[in-house]
Structure formats: C-alpha cells, structure tokens
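quick q for whoever's on today - can somebody do inverse folding on this one?? i tried earlier but teh output was garbage lol. tokens:
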C-alpha cells in the first residue's frame, strides 16, 4: 500500500502511541493542519459512563474563553418584550407559532435554539424534529431561560454544548487552527474542566479514560491524562 505526500507530511514526526501534554498536542495538531481552509480543532473524551442509565448521563454547556471561531445562527422562541430583547441581543431568528411552523416543515436554518419557559408548550411539539439534531432547548444547558439576551450572547460568544454519546464519547470543536497555541490550550482546559464538573453521580471507577485531539483533516494524538487532571478526581 502506497502513502501519499500529504499523509506523509501530516504524520511526519508524530508518535501515535505517545501521550502528549495539552501544550505539546496543540503544537503538533496546529503544525499538521495544512488544509486549504481553517480547520476546526476537535477534542474527544472517552468517559467511563453508560449513558443508557439516567444517573450516568453527562451533559452541559461551557463558554470557551477564546471562542469557537464559528459564527452560530441562533433561533429564539419568544413573544412580546422577550422577543424584542432577543432581537436586540443579535438573535438571527425570533418567533413563536410561526417559527414553530417553519421548523415543523423542515426549515431549520439555525445552529442553536433558545426558548422562554412559556414557549415550551409550542417547542415541545418539535421534539421529533429538534431532538435528533441536538437542538432541543433545555434548562440544564441554559437554553430555556427568561434571560434570553444572555443566552444569545453566550451562544454567539463561544458557548459550547456537550452531551455524551452512546459509546461514552464526548466530542466538541474547541477552536480553529488559526488560533494561537495559548488560545486553543485555554479552550481545551475550560472544556475538560466543564466535563469533569458534570461528572454524574452514577459514574464509577475511572471517569475520564482517554482524551485525544485532532483537526478536521489531520491525524489524532493522545493527551496524557496527567496533563488534564490537574488535581481533579477523574
């Protein structure tokens, strides 16, 4: 089997069996992000949980200190003064029943969905549409709230929602390859800290089993657990 020049370039000097510190991993991944677009830096955490059990679900939201590098389109379900508040805060779509009708028809032109509590009767009917896309508003991650201005600002400013998948994996984008090494490292530490704080009561044994970092088109590298623990019980 022959290997291409690009593959050789992005794997040169990379030890796939070595576990790197966060700073070492960031430096390596940035140097391997050679695509013609600004690649997303992605983190993957393998947790010692079984999300099929309610007391082992891991879910939350974290505001990354350096932002995500993405421009999110935010939809807000609200009426009256709260609708005006959402518009002033920069929401891309604001509405009530008419917005629900658009979503029900399959028109989902947004990346984050926020709702005031009084609108959940309307939004609740959209569960089959929004749920599979992980867009359903939820008070646990701050997307069902009366403070819609803050929720919109957080979404626009770098808030990242996370939720464990069936295999116990949590994945998220933590910046762009164009970010500085310090900015990416700060985002990684903030994300990992949020996942650690979201440790469910039912988690037994080792909570954080593996951590890896990659870019959209680049290889993945392992991060040493000692580099992410920083005194936390994981």
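ok took a stab at it. sequence:
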């Amino acid at each position: 089997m022959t290997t291409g020049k690009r593959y050789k370039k992005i794997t040169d000097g990379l030890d796939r069996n070595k576990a790197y510190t966060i700073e070492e991993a960031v430096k390596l991944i940035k140097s391997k992000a050679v695509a013609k677009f600004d690649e997303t830096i992605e983190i993957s955490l393998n947790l010692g949980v079984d999300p099929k059990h309610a007391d082992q679900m891991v879910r939350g939201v974290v505001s990354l200190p350096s932002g995500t590098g993405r421009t999110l389109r935010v939809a807000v379900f609200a009426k009256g003064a709260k609708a005006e508040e959402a518009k002033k805060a920069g929401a891309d779509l604001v509405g009530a029943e008419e917005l629900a009708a658009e979503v029900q028809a399959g028109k989902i032109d947004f990346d984050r969905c926020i709702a005031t509590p009084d609108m959940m009767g309307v939004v609740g009917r959209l569960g089959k549409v929004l749920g599979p896309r992980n867009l359903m508003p939820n008070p646990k991650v701050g997307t069902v709230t009366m403070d819609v201005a803050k929720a919109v600002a957080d979404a626009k400013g770098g808030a990242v929602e996370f939720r464990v998948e069936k295999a116990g994996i949590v994945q998220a984008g933590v910046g762009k390859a164009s970010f500085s090494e310090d900015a990416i490292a700060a985002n990684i530490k903030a994300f990992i800290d949020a996942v650690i704080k979201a440790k469910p009561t039912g988690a037994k044994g080792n909570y954080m089993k593996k951590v890896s970092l990659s870019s959209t088109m680049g290889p993945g590298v392992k991060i040493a657990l000692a580099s992410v623990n920083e005194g936390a019980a994981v």
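fwiw Residues 50 and 118 are 33 Å apart (CA to CA). also The chain has a mean pLDDT of 91. so keep that in mind when u check it
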